[in-house]
Amino acid sequence: MSSDSAFRVPNSALSRRELFGALSAGFAGLSPVRAASSPTPVGVPKNAICFSIASGRTFGPRPTLRSCVLVFFYGGPSHLDTFDPKPNAPGEVRGEYATIPTAVPGVRVSEHLPRMARVMDRVALVRSLHHPMRNHNSAAAEALTGRTPAGGDQELLTDDPRGIPTLGSAVSFSLGERAGILPYVALPYTLYNVVQLPGQTPGLLGGAFDRFQVDRDPNAPDFRIAAFEGASDLSDRAALLRGLDNSALSGPAQRGAINRDRAVRLLASPEVRRLFDIQKEPQRLRERYGRHRLGQSLLLARRLVEGGVNFVAAFDGQTNGQDANWDSHEKLFPRHRQLIPPADQALSALIEDLEVRGLLDSTLVLALGEFGRTPKINGSAGRDHWPDCYTALLAGGGVKGGTVFGSSDKIGAYPATEPVTPADIASTIFWRFGIDPATEVHDQTNRPFRLSEGEPIRQLF
């Protein structure tokens, strides 16, 4: 069956009570985080529109981005054995895999990425991504927030409730009135490395901008979102309670009532519930994505962005370890031989499916891990952590397909040209949404911080 023929347009672990309580408490408990008015950024014409979170206005050109899908390969795939191979390097660097040509002349990738090779003309590779964090927890925090964590490079770094928000929460907050009723979804699980991996929470933004977390396998036959079950009568109950309460509310109580209404609308919305009904997808399309957790997670991500969700984080690898995720300190080549094909199948399917549905131009797909792997193969036939240079992949959202931005040196150890940081990736996401990355936000203690310290990679668009 051809991939084109598959692309013809034709549950959570939280209980309903837990979700409703979390949403209401999170919304109601949010202190008035605010955005300071910022001057027109350097290099932007004075008549350009600058983003103000308080007003929901936009920065720069009319925003072209409606949604972003972040695919996070937890554990750190080897860039040398996926999208930045070094076929002319010595054997202890080159590794076991051969390379294959792609749809872009002169660009080669691993032999285990045949489907991605065919869509490379719709993809941009950033081969010069780097940062200083060498442990999983701190590196994940850097990749998922675009900021070096204040706690430093700790093996078991935990989340700071007053820390920098994850990208999905920052986008949800910054969109203001432009955000949908369900702006940010993470799936199919929460990431752990002994403790919950930092970089997944809204931090100082507060619970109102937390993710809607899916904690079940979308590939399971009985996949469902338990929180939505029996929710159809919630709106009637909420209206009755409002009718019985004749008191005038003000301040935090008024905000709490508003936020409870928002939670009710979310849980009771038939449109929101339908977004998660993956069983409605044709079997042929489900097979194209792959009947595995990652494949069905990315199919669900497509359903969500098609339905108006602004940011979806899809995680691959729930816990850390040689046999749990991409962290291949030993026997890398047989392990990556297991991991790469499902990723190749699912990611290429997402790109093709979005394109056929007319959604690719308005949806940015970003795929990366927390770091790459060491250039030299170690004594256990594996590769160790290497944040000094690795590769991120972008597609859609106006990306110039077939672009390779930046390069690594001859052995993939360090950037040779155009070094890029996670902060630059974060700024690129904000910019494409029409959000000024330089917007200054004040937390509950009036402490200021910028949405991002990086610069958008405009050359990709």
Indicate the overall shape. Answer: globular
Main beta-sheet annotation = 8 strands, mixed
Number of domains: 1
Annotated CATH architecture: 3-Layer(aba) Sandwich
Provide a descriptive summary of the structure in words.
By secondary structure, the chain is α/β, with parallel strands linked by helices. The protein has one domain: Alkaline Phosphatase, subunit A (3-Layer(aba) Sandwich), CATH 3.40.720. It is 30% helix and 15% strand. It has 13 helices and 19 strands. The chain has an 8-stranded mixed β-sheet with strand order 9-6-10-2-11-14-5-15. Strands 1-18-19 form a 3-stranded antiparallel β-sheet, with no helix packed on it. α11 runs parallel beside α12. The longest helix has 25 residues. The radius of gyration is 22 Å and the shape is globular. The two termini are 33 Å apart. About 11% of the residues have low confidence.
Secondary-structure map:
Blueprint lengths: L2 H4 L9 H14 L4 E2 L31 E7 L17 H4 L4 E3 L6 E3 L3 H5 L4 E7 L6 H10 L21 H9 L8 E4 L4 E2 L1 E2 L15 E2 L20 H11 L6 H18 L1 H6 L7 H7 L3 H14 L4 E6 L15 H25 L6 E7 L2 E2 L11 E2 L3 E7 L6 E3 L1 E2 L6 E3 L4 H11 L7 E3 L5 E3 L11
Parallel strand pairs: 2-10, 2-11, 5-15, 6-9, 6-10
Antiparallel strand pairs: 1-18, 3-4, 5-14, 7-8, 11-14, 12-13, 16-17, 18-19
Quick take:
The protein is of the alpha/beta class and 461 residues long.
Features:
Alkaline Phosphatase, subunit A; 30% helix; 8-stranded mixed sheet; globular; 3-stranded antiparallel sheet; 15% strand; 461 residues
